[in-house]
C-alpha cells in the first residue's frame, strides 16, 4: 500500500508540474495573441512530440520530456540588416535562417521582433507572473483553505513512560509518564489547565510551564463528563520556532531553546486553517526567500556536488531536481498523516515550485524570460537615447547575436540538472 501511495504522490506532482508549465506558457501566449503576434506552436515539454493538435493557426501539444515548455512566435529574430562576422557567426546565421524561413506571407505586421519594447516585456513577463500568482494561490489554498497540521486537544495515546524504545517498551531507567501516572486515557479531551479553559495545546503547555515543578490541575472531558487530574510534567529543552515554523536564533546565530513540559502523550492531529492575510504573507515571504536562494544558487550547486562525491553532508534545505521533487511528493503521500495533511503538503510543494519558477525565470540571461526582458529594456533605452539626441531610430535589437550566451546558459542548465538528478538518486533529501 505504501508503494502505491508513493507512486500516486509522484504522479500527482508530475501532473502539477505539467499544469504549471502549461499555465506559464499560457502567460506568454495570451498577451502575444493580444498584440497580434502569430504563435506557431504551444508545447509542454521538449524532445519528440507525443501528442499535438492544431487549433486555428497554433499547434498545441505535449513532448516527451516534461522539463519545460515553449511557445514559438513568428519573427523572434529580425532580418539581418548588416552581415555579422563576429564569433559563432555560422551558428547565428543558421538559427536566423531557420526561424526566418518559418515566416509566412501576412506575417509582416505580426512578428515578435517588430513589437515595441514594452509589449515584448509584457509577453515575456507573462509566464513568470502566471507562476507567481499560481504559487500564491496554491499556498493560500494549502494554508488557509485546508490548514496546517497541529496538535489537537484530544489524546490519541498515553505512554507508560517517557523516552520509550522503538518497539514501544520502556527502558529500566525511563521516568514514568506523568499523564499515565495521573490516570489520563486515550480519547480524553483536554479542557482546562489550572482553571483556565484552553483552545490549543500550546496554551495548555504554557500554563503548565508557568506552574514550574508544581503539579497542574488538568480537566479533561471523558465520555462527556469532566474529570480532574493532577499532572506534574517533566521538562525538556526544545528549540523555539516563529509563527511560520522557522527556527529563531539569538544574536550569535545560535538557535534559541526553552524548557517545555512533557507529559507523555501523543495528541491527535488536526488541520487548522491559517488566516488568509497570514498565508498570503507567507507566500510573499517565500518569494523573497526564493530570490535569496537564486542568488546563492552557485554555492548551492557546489555544495550538492561535494555531497554527491561524499565530501560533506547534503543540505536538507538545498536545491533538488524534478526527481527530488517527485521523491518528496512520494514520501508525503506514503507518510502516516491524514489525507488533508497530505493534500495540503502537496499543494504547498507545488506552490513553492511555482514561486521557484517565477524567480528563476527572471534571471536576466537568455534563453530565460528575464534575458528577453533585459533585451527589451536595452532596446527601449537605445531607441529612446537616439530620439533624445536627434539621431535616426536604430530599430529593434538583434537578439540572434546573443545566441552564444543562450547556448552557454543552456549547457550550464543541462549540467546543473544532471548533477541534481544524480544527487537525488544517490543521496536524496527526505522529509523530516
Task: Provide a descriptive summary of the structure in words.
This protein has 432 residues and is of the alpha+beta class. It is built from 11 helices and 10 strands. It has helices spanning 2-34, 89-100, 117-146, 178-182, 201-210, 276-295, 297-308, 322-334, 339-361, 369-388, 403-426; strands at 39-55, 58-73, 148-158, 189-193, 196-197, 216-222, 225-231, 234-239, 257-262, 265-272. It has a 4-stranded antiparallel sheet. Strands 1-2 form a two-stranded antiparallel sheet. It is elongated and about 90 Å long. It starts with a helix and ends in a 6-residue tail after the last helix. The model has no long low-confidence stretch (mean pLDDT 87).
Can you lay out the helices and strands and say which pair or pack?
Elements: H1 2-34, E1 39-55, E2 58-73, H2 89-100, H3 117-146, E3 148-158, H4 178-182, E4 189-193, E5 196-197, H5 201-210, E6 216-222, E7 225-231, E8 234-239, E9 257-262, E10 265-272, H6 276-295, H7 297-308, H8 322-334, H9 339-361, H10 369-388, H11 403-426
Instruction: Give the distance, in angstroms, between the N- and C-terminal Cα atoms.
Output: 21 Å
Helix content: 40-55%
Runs in which pLDDT lies below 50 for 5 or more consecutive residues are none
What is the count of DSSP helices, taking H or I runs of 4+ residues? 11
Q: Which radius of gyration do the C-alpha atoms yield?
A: 29 Å
- The average pLDDT value, as a whole number, equals 87
